[in-house]
Amino acid sequence: MDDAALGREAWSVLEANWTGSVTVPAPGLYPHQWNWDSTFVAIGLARWDTRRAGAELVSLLAGQWRTGMVPHIVFRPAHAEAYFPGPSVWRSQDHPDSPNGVCTSGLTQPPLHALALWWVWRHAADHDTATALVRRLYPMLVAQHDYLAATRDLGGGGLAAIVHPWESGMDDSPAWDAPLAALAPVRYAYRRDGLPERHPDSHHDRYVWLALRYRDSGYDPAYLRQEHPFAVEDPMFNGIWLASCQALAELAPVAGADPGPHRERAERIRAALLDRLWTDGAFHARDLRGGRLVPVCTVGSFGPLLDPGLPAERVAELVRVLESPRFMGAAGYPVPSCEIRAQEFDRSRYWRGPSWVNTNWLLRRAATVHGLTALAQVLGTCTLRLVRQAGFRECFDPFDGSGRGSRDFSWSAALTLDLLA
Ligand code: 9WN
After folding, report:
1. Are 22 and 61 in contact (CB under 8 A)?
2. For the whole model, what pTM was predicted?
3. Which of 166, 205, 393, 407 to mutate to test the pocket of ligand 1 (most atoms within 8 A of CB)?
4. Taking the CA of residue 382 as centre, how many other CA atoms within 13 Å lie in the half-sphere pointing to its CB?
C-alpha cells in the first residue's frame, strides 16, 4: 500500500471513531474519551486539521477537576456503563472538585498534554487558531502540572507518583507486578468479559480494589500520602512530564506568561530522575511502598530520553540498551514493551511484550531531540511497516508483526498520519 492509500485509511479510522466532539480510542471496547489517547490523536492531527486537534484537547480538558487533575477517562453519557468501571463506580459527580455536568474517572494518565499542545502550535497550518488555543489551554495545563507537583510527589523527591497501574497507560506492564503482588489478596465481584489476554490472574481484581479504596477516601490527597498501598515513580510518566514542562516553557510567551518556572521544574524532574530512578545503565520504576527499584526494564525505562537536556553519557547508555537484543536488537518490529530476556516477557500480552505505535512515536521523538537520525528513521519506518502489514491495531507481536488487541485503534491511525508527513 502506498503512502497516500495508508493516509486515507488512517483518516477513515479517525472519522469512524469521531463522535462529533471527541475521538474514542476504538469502536466497541473503548466507547469513551481516554486521556493520553486524545493527546496522541491531537499530535497526529496537528499538521492536518488544527481545529480538530484543538477540539480533541478542549473536550478532554472539559473533564479537568478543580484540583488540576486531568482524568484518565471522560465518559460519554449515552454509553455510560458500556465500559467497566463506568461512572457509577467512580462517582465523580459526588466530589466537590469534579467538573459540573461531566462524569469522569478519578485517576489520571501521563501528562502529555502540553507537549501535544506545543506540537499542534508548532505544526499548525492555521496559526491564529493555534495561538488562540494556546491562550485558552495554557492556564489549565499550568494547573495540571501544579497538581502533580503538589499532590503526587508522594516520595518527596520531586517526581510524580502514579497511584494505580491505569495511570501509567501501560496497565499490565511487568513493572507493576511486584507492587501489585504486595497488596492483600482481593476478589472483586465484577469482571469485564472478553479480554482473556489482558487480565490473566487477579490483577484486574486488584485494579478495581485500588480504585475503590481511593474513591472511598473521597479522592483525598492525605490518604494517598499516608495510606494508599500503590505508589510508583514511573520513568515514562515523569519523562513525559519533563518534556511537557519544556513545552509549557516554550508556550508561555505565547500566553504572555513567564517560562522560568517551567524550566526550573523541568530541571528538578531531570535531577530527580537521575538521582532516584537510574541504576544499571537504565531508568527503572521505583516502588515507593516496597522501598525499592523494580528490576525489570520496560519500554517505560526510555521515557526520560524525551529530555534534550539528559546528559550525553546517559543518552548513550540508554540507546545501547534500546538497540541491544534486550529490546530492538532481537525484535523484528520495535519496540517491545518489555525487555525480551525478562521472565515476564510475553510477546502476545498487551504491555508485557508487544510493540505499540504510541511508544514508538515517543521514542522516535526522543531520538530526534538527541539528533539520532538513524534511530529515528528506523523507528518511523518500522512503525509504518507494522500498520501497513497488520492494520491500525492496538499493538503488535514484536517478532512477526502480527496485530493484537483492538482493530481500528485511533492513536495507531493518528500517529501514522504524523509519521507520513
Ligand atoms: C484502562 C484506552 C486505554 C489506553 C491504555 C491501555 C488501555 C484501559 C484498559 O486502553 O487501558 O485505562 O481497559 O485496559 O492500556 O494505554 O489509554 O485506549
Report:
1. no
2. 0.96
3. 166
4. 29
Give catalytic status of residue 171 as yes or no.
Answer: yes
Q: How far is 274 from 251, CA to CA, in rounded Å? A: 26
pLDDT tens-digit series, residues 120-140: 999 998 999 999 999 999 999
167 alpha carbon – ligand 1 mean position (Å): 9
Ligand 1 pocket member 37 (CB < 6 A): yes
ipTM of the complex: 0.99
Instruction: Tell me the three state secondary structure of residue 252.
Output: helix
Read off φ and ψ for residue 141, nearest 5 degrees.
Answer: -75, -35
| Bridge partners for 279 per DSSP | 282
Identified catalytic residue from 172, 250, 394, 397: 394
| C-alpha cell of residue 19 | 463522535
- Residue 102 C-alpha cell reads as 461531566
pLDDT the model gives residue 186: 63
Instruction: Name the nearest CA neighbour of 115 among 211, 24, 251.
Output: 251
C-alpha cell at 149: 507537583
Q: Which atom of ligand 1 is nearest to the CA of 168?
A: 16
Residue 79's pLDDT is: 82
30 lines ligand 1 (CB under 6 A): yes
Q: Quick one: cell of 282? A: 537504565
Q: Is 110 a pocket residue for ligand 1 (Cβ < 6 Å)? A: no
What CATH number is associated with residue 271?
1.50.10.10
Q: Is any atom of ligand 1 closer than 6 Å to the C-beta of 234?
A: no
**Is the link from the previous residue into 221 a cis peptide, with omega within 30 of 0?**
no
Range of the domain at 274: 3-420
Q: Is 307 a catalytic residue?
A: no
Predicted local distance difference test score (pLDDT) of residue 77: 82
| Nearest Cα residue to 155 out of 234, 67, 210 | 234
Tell me how far the alpha carbon of residue 34 lies from the centroid of ligand 1, in angstroms.
8
The total domain count for the chain is 1
CA 317 to ligand 1 centroid distance, Å: 30
pLDDT for position 193: 47
pLDDT for the residue numbered 191: 46
Q: Which residues of the chain carry a pLDDT beneath 50?
A: 189-191, 193-200
Q: Does ligand 1 have an atom closer than 6 angstroms to the CB of 25?
A: yes
Q: What pLDDT score was predicted for residue 187? A: 56
What is the three-class DSSP state of 162? Answer: strand
